[in-house]
Amino acid sequence: MSKDLPQPQQSEEVDLGQLFKLIGNAFNNFFRFIGSLFNKLFLAFVWLVFFVKKHALKLVIAGVAGIVLGMVLEKTSEPVYTSYVIVKQNYNVGGNLNNAISYYNALLKQGDVSALENILGIRSVETESILNFELRSVVSENEKLQEFDTYLKTLDTSLVKNVEYKDFLKNSKDYNHQYQQITIKAKERNNFDSVFEKIISNISSNTYFKREQEKDLSELKEQASAISKSLIKSDTLLAIYQKAIVKSAENNNDSQTKITIDNKGNESSTKEFELYTKDLELRQALVEIEREIANKEHIVEITSSKQDSGTIDNKKEFFGKPVSPRKYYAFMLTILTFIALLGMNFVKFLKRYENKI
């Protein structure tokens, strides 16, 4: 009878045991790999510390030599004069402005002075002194956050959760920000006011933007005209209510003053207040439209004070930030010396295995 009873399936228990064993081994190997990785990183850090300590004197000498080189170049190099203006884009002309600045720089590199003279309307002496043109946005991190918030309000609610701030910054162009700084660097201290004005004039004369400006101004003026007519009607109606209140008060001093012009029996004071509030709203809207008309009258406008002449600027770009020549060459020589010493040490390391190959 016992032979007929079902026997436990030992093969399934063995398979489960092997499975758990494989999972355990996998976790052990993973943690062992992580531990070895951190161990190697720590050893690399320790080696780097001792490497810098060993060659600290050489690195200090390189930094001091860089400072001396920067001081010599500051004294002997020709000065660079910088002039700039801040412009406000009332239309989305950032792409055109960026392309124009790139085109001017291309003409400078090609040495095509005559073409640049014709475009900007300046003398050859001034053109030959120009080193380059630059365009960069003048916007703070808070302003970028405000732009991001404004952008989110234009999206559908279902799409907002899929948009991140870093993606917004990645896809947005710096030249599309409303405020931009146009900079001219030159070898001579010249007055470039006319050049800045010509750059703005070339952008503002674009046919497309001029048509857009005409359409916007026409629409805004029609809105202002409609609001002005509404204000006249509102003032007339308010005057009628005030006369009715005075007349009603004269005829009935003991009863509550009411008017029934709209046949709804509302109190005259309530109607008068509603008309007064509506009048204020219309006047506020009219002020905003007139301000918008004033903005749209210029496609691009200069907001900063014009500079009669440039200022000396011999700073260097280091990781996107302007620094003095002394710091720049000190950093550069120190970094180059560190790389050279690292390369020599690596070559010595390879020579150990030269005879083993």
Describe the 3D structure.
- By secondary structure, the protein is α+β, with helices and mostly antiparallel strands.
- The chain is 66% helix and 10% strand.
- The chain contains twelve helices and seven strands.
- It has helices spanning 10-54, 56-76, 94-110, 113-120, 124-129, 141-153, 157-160, 165-171, 193-204, 207-251, 268-296, 325-351, and strands at residues 81-89, 130-137, 179-186, 300-302, 311-312, 316-318, 321-323.
- Strands 1, 2, 3, 4 and 5 form a five-stranded antiparallel sheet that branches. A two-stranded antiparallel ribbon has the order 6-7.
- α2 (56-76) runs antiparallel to α12 and α10 (207-251) runs antiparallel to α11 (268-296).
- The radius of gyration is 38 Å and the shape is flat.
- Mean pLDDT is 80; it is low at 254-266.
Question: Which tags fit this structure?
Answer:
357 residues; alpha+beta; five-stranded antiparallel β-sheet; 66% helix
Discrete helix count: 12
Average pLDDT rating: 80
Largest sheet: 5 strands, antiparallel
Secondary-structure element series: HHEHHHEHHHEHHHEEEEH
Structural class by helix and strand composition? alpha+beta
State the end-to-end distance. Answer: 74 Å
The percent range for strand residues is 5-15%
Share of helical residues: 55-70%
Number of strands: 7
Low-confidence stretches: 254-266
- The radius of gyration is 38 Å
The best one-word shape is flat
